[in-house]
Amino acid sequence: xxxxxxxxxxxxxxxxxxxxxxxxxxxxxxxxxxxxxxxxxxxxxxxxxxxxxxxxxxxxxxxxxxxxxxxxxxxxxxxxxxxxxxxxxxxxxxxxxxxxxxxxxxxxxxxxxxxxxxxxxxxxxxxxxxxxxxxxxxxxxxxxxxxxxxxxxxxxxxxxxxxxxxxxxxxxxxxxxxxxxxxxxxxxxxxxxxxxxxxxxxxxxxxxxxxxxxxxxxxxxxxxxxxxxxxxxxxxxxxxxxxxxxxxxxxxxxxxxxxxxxxxxxxxxxxxxxxxxxxxxxxxxxxxxxxxxxxxxxxxxxxxxxxxxxxxxxxxxxxxxxxxxxxxxxxxxxxxxxxxxxxxxxxxxxxxxxxxxxxxxxxxxxxxxxxxxxxxxxxxxxxxxxxxxxxxxxxxxxxxxxxxxxxxxxxxxxxxxxxxxxxxxxxxxxxxxxxxxxxxxxxxxxxxxxxxxxxxxxxxxxxxxxxxxxxxxxxxxxxxxxxxxxxxxxxxxxxxxxxxxxxxxxxxxxxxxxxxxxxxxxxxxxxxxxxxxxxxxxxxxxxxxxxxxxxxxxxxxxxxxxxxxxxxxxxxxxxxxxxxxxxxxxxxxxxxxxxxxxxxxxxxxxxxxxxxxxxxxxxxxxxxxxxxxxxxxxxxxxxxxxxxxxxxxxxxxxxxxxxxxxxxxxxxxxxxxxxxxxxx
DNA sequence: GAGCACTGC
Length: 680
Description:
This protein is an alpha/beta fold. About 40% of the residues lie in helices and about 20% in strands. Helix 14 (about 415-420) crosses helix 16.
């Protein structure tokens, strides 16, 4: 083994020795570090970093309509600020609402705050997320997901039941965050007594304060407060020269680090499953060269089975260092305990909507500074840590502050429907925090017009437009459901929709042999009609076999995702029947009828088989290919297919493909197909 | 014969 050369330089001048002194035994707890764990809850609250800002926050909120709160992780802002407001009496004028981007954090925070107040959740402190609600007449502090608040807007456009809204984690800039912020700005101007607190990371604070200032408003409509967090220091290392292959560099860095650094687990960020497995193979070669294994390498990516994912949470035996090779899943979604060293390859895979082809591109791009900081932070959770960035300091300085917000790079028909339902007539003039490209908005308007959700004037149609705006999935799937109610197969269509909402139900095992067995097992469900009917088959088999984990193991299916699809399906059946009066019937195996419904939703996304042997988009003539993940990839080519999504990678790939008959198009979408000529 | 990060109603 070559000797370790200091390839990394530190931006700060501290001697490297300083990092090694004071190293404690590795922490093995899976909980977030809490220095005050043996104090009572009240004393704990008093000791939180945010406590000394309490009066200032309350004062600012008295003086201004919008307050921007900048606080690091662990500052206690999500749990404390709602209580400060309550204790100061803000609840007497209406609810204190807190929005969260994810369901889990919504429920967890509500429970935590209720506990701190010595109450049960559902009394003063409540929450509402999809599928679960703990709200009573006494509820004054209400934690909700962003999606729930947007739904509440439909019934109460001025949010009159609230006196204060706190938008937590606003810096994430999800599609729903941006929609909510745009709408809240409108509401604030109409309801001067409503207050807004935006809780954000440092990087976006000035952006938000500019967005929430308008002519004629109090000049200091927004106020920034910065609250430090409770993270340990993380030392940063950079490459002197850019590297050619970050997968190899990651593995080499892991190995050097393992030889030279004191105990502590390693987390390496790569962009995709393929890279993770490649790096895993490479590091295993290094490990095999040792007599006794002192390094244990584990992969972590989204489509692994739950059981395989669990293994990254185990504490390695004494004398063994754990290294986790992960995708972005470890950046925010999953916290792996014991991590002291982070390796950041500097890249990330992002989806980007292309309005010309209505496809998503999946591209590997440099991470943003915000992501790089977030990744580095994963090293400082248990004790002071180190991050090795596989790029130069100059490259780091040149990184974009953040990834463009989701709303600027996504398909927008859902967002447009939502805004139309709230009475926003001219979508192009809506005050988005970051306006999306006009082309994207126009593509959404065209899609909605084709689906008969909007009329020539761009008004929501009755009943289709209003129904599509209310249903909680994409416009095309909602249209599919609407038609299935009329054709008598809503039960099957709801199953398919539920299966499409969850993450992949087909697991991708780690080893090559298991991957092969998985593929063979999946064939069990495959049918010539295509992917959506295949999904229906998986669901039916899962239910018939008693919905067991064993069944999923045997057929390489992901239990947690299938289980969630079942939950969703139950909810959708109830929703469709009770709220929207859609008759729920089963077509009892009439597959053609189901395929017709699918066509009724996806008729704008059709490809025909050109005589040259490749598929072409019916609307534009663009060449398309069947995605290798599709059931139809290995089957003889059908003349006409509809697809659920287009993905641009090495080619323009169709996914979620269904075989259809040409005459269904004119039968189900005559308004769209009368002028379109099909060239063979 | 290609490859898919993550959420939400």
